[in-house]
Known about the structure:
It is built from 20 helices and twelve strands. The protein is an alpha+beta fold.
Amino acid sequence: MEQGQRKPFSESVPAFHGRPLPEAAVPVGYAALIDAFGLAAPIPIRLAAIGPRHKVYEADDWKLYTPRHRPDASLIGHLTFALRYEGLDLAVLKTLFQATGPEPIAGIVRAAPTSIYTRRIWFLYEWLLAARLDLPDATNGAYALVVDPDQQWAAEGTTSSRHRVKNNLPGTPAFCPLIFRTPLLEQLVARDLGAEARRIVADVPADLLARTAAFLLLKDSRSSFQIEGEDPPRDRIQRWGQVIGQAGRYPIDRAELERLQRIVIGDARFVHLGLRDQGGFVGEHDRLDGSPIPDHISARHEDLPALVDGLTAFDRQAAPNLDVILAAAALAFGFVYIHPFEDGNGRLHRYLIHHVLAEREFNPPGLVFPISAVILDRIDDYRRVLESYSRRILPLVRWRATNQGNVEVLNETADFYRYFDATPHAEFLFECVARTIDIDLPAETAFLKSYDSFKAQVKDMIEMPDRVLDLLYRFLRQNGGRLSKRAREKEFAGFTDDEAMRIEAIYANL
């Protein structure tokens, strides 16, 4: 049995940790390592097993391989399988390395010092644990990529001559979410949505574009509050919209995030500003005794400075090497899982999406995509995406209730927030951005063109103030292009029957 291993590697089973297999099969790779070493790490979204059939197929979050794919029932066998077929799961790997200790990993490297897989394992051990194995520097073997770019999105990379690898991880040990290549993401990245947006607005007159931008900005700000169940006064919505409009101007660090939180909160008499100094969770309280019922438990307050430093490093060093929307998803959803503040985390999480898009000049100049408005329309999908990771880490967090109805975390959890699979989050955000470009932006510019044409034609008939024209247009939109009997008798009693018919015809022909 390997050092630190609690039990032998599994044979054929019908289910794994409560997750049924499509048919009885042998868990391999990460599943086998989690089970054999009793790893307290989030179980990957997709697991691998060796099935009885002679074909590879996917079903129910499992990928079943053929008997000829079965690895050796050993630490190196399952590690190699995982790296070759399942990509990198940094949370599982770090927990595994902590369980094995250094010598089994050093022994793997000594046994096959030129193997691409052993050198990647060696590098990952030292990178994740910030500990040097008792090994001389590698002298042979072609340089290997740490992240397989055919499986997961990677950075450009830097060379590590000690391991003869190219470190193309899209982050630092302090914060490094990973995103798998999926058909949906491949398709959306290939579209080059930023270029599409610039083409859409290229022929829009400057004054019309400015009005479009103002409306979309206000719409996004209002929606961001509505997602949190708030209905603030218009001036507060406008102030937050102005902040969103300045996204990307300042680098993200602790001071900037705290500045933004002060703006978000406004009246802070009952809110602690700055990084939390106690636990945090998302959920409800028991109606009888006020005890917490968490759906998500935030990072420990002791870990917040290091985690925020990780977000800062990602924004400044790693994000520029990734596709802009992938980078925005990793940064923004990483932030909301960490939940560094007592209040304001949701709006700041969505602000970070705007920050990355603007910082990387994805938006056409002066334009903000109404991402929050799309999220509000897809609120159930948004919650499912958030829960896709929260529900996997919640069973691993040991906690107790405090007298204040909060939670106190009792185990080390920082790595849960540093290393997560951001693939569902990237797909969701890409779809939201695509909708703003495919639907919202063209629809708003078309609406304003139509509205301007309506106003001009009506004014040729009857001179009236803009506020009355606005009301007239709204009434027609709300009533299918017809003026109701009530409107004719009250707000627009001055219209003749002929004028009313002509106005309805103008609207119909827009």
